[in-house]
Amino acid sequence: MITSIEATNIVENGLASDNIVYHIGGYLVKKFKKKSSCAICLTSLECTDVRNLPQEFNAHHLTDGKNRGRLQMSSYKLFQLLASIETVILDYCSTGDIMKNDSFLDILYSLCLEELPQVGCDDHRVVTIAIV
User: Fold this and answer.
1) What tens digit of pLDDT does each residue of 20-38 get?
2) Which of 9, 65, 117, 132 could anchor a disulfide with 80, C-beta 3.0 to 4.6 Å?
3) According to the lineage, what is the superkingdom (predicted)?
């Protein structure tokens, strides 16, 4: 369980957004498990042991601290994918164009131009991204 002091440290160190994105990734892993049975795709999305995450990576602390055995941990690649998507959306929002009619299409187009981290196996990559 995360204490209020630990939560304050997470927010003060600028890690709150990363922790939330990682936590959302875990939710997506849980939902993905219900929709697909491909073990390779699941392996690319799920982290079964936080010791397998990069040593300098700290965004798993919120999920790890709240976990009582049922929360899912996302892989580093899934986190990178979600963080990349978040960055494109926030950049678009900062321009003030978010209320335009075609803003959603503009964001999708921007994402297509990005070199996003790949998740899923070669056979199911498009379906995996669509589910996520």
Assistant:
1) 888 888 899 999 999 888 9
2) 117
3) Eukaryota
* Residues pairing with 74 in the sheet: 46
What does DSSP assign to residue 117? P
Half-sphere exposure for 46 (CA within 13 Å, toward CB): 17
C-alpha gyration radius of the chain: 16
Decide if 18 contacts 83 (C-beta within 8 A).
Answer: yes
**Tokens of residue 1, six digits:** 């369980």
pLDDT of residue 10: 47
Partner residues linked to 46 by β-bridges: 74
Structural domain including 96 reads 4-131
Domain count across the chain:
1
- Inter-CA distances, 41 with 101, 119, 132, Å: 35, 7, 11
Q: CA dihedral in degrees (41, 51, 56, 81; nearest 10)?
A: 10
pLDDT digits (tens, 9 = 90+) for 71-102: 788 899 999 999 998 888 888 888 877 777 88
